[in-house]
Amino acid sequence: LLKSEESFRNIFENSTVGLYRTTPDGKILLANPTLVKMLGYESLEELAKINLEKDGFEPGYARHEFKKQVENDTFVQGLEIAWKKKDGTKIYVRESSKAIRDARGKVRYYEGTVEDITERKKTEQELAHSAQELLARNADLERFNKAVVGRELRMIELKKQINELSKKCGQPAPYSVSESVEFRSRRSSNKK
Fold first, then answer.
1. What count of other Cβ atoms lies within 10 Å of the Cβ of residue 130?
2. Could you say which of 2, 13, 89, 187 has the lowest number of CB atoms within 10 Å?
3. Any long-range contacts for 136-141 (C-beta under 8 Å, 24+ apart)?
4. 62-105, pLDDT tens digit by residue?
5. Residues near 24 by Cβ (< 8 Å), separated by ≥ 6?
6. Does pTM surpass 0.85?
């Protein structure tokens, strides 16, 4: 039993993800050093002063929704949410939790894991922003392309009209028909 307890303690204290145990009324019973550090606190004692029902970690963090889901489904897996650190900065976490019940089925506490996914979220946000910029640039290029192609088509039509008028006046056509055909073939190959 002593060896098993020591093994559990080593896993708890050396885990690379945050581990916790909290009560339904918001008390933090356990938090491993990884979670304490992740949230910017010096010790479990300091972190345990927070009541999750009153303070929570982030204004958008709906603990009642978390509780409803974990109590109805018995667990929550991969919930991605924003939490607030001690210094007020926002971090994104991926949380998985399970409701631990007593013999009568009443929830005694929640046990869970928390992984800091802030860097991944920042990268996703940057990629989404870049994608929006590229879509806007592409739309600009399409408008420019339509304007240029439209102008070129008008020029071809004008050249044809000038050629026809020149023929009617007994003059040689100043523009070759191949220019028009060449432009049209380039245009149709660009559409493919």
1. 10
2. 2
3. none
4. 777 888 888 888 788 998 888 889 998 989 999 999 999 999 99
5. 67, 71, 107, 109, 110
6. no
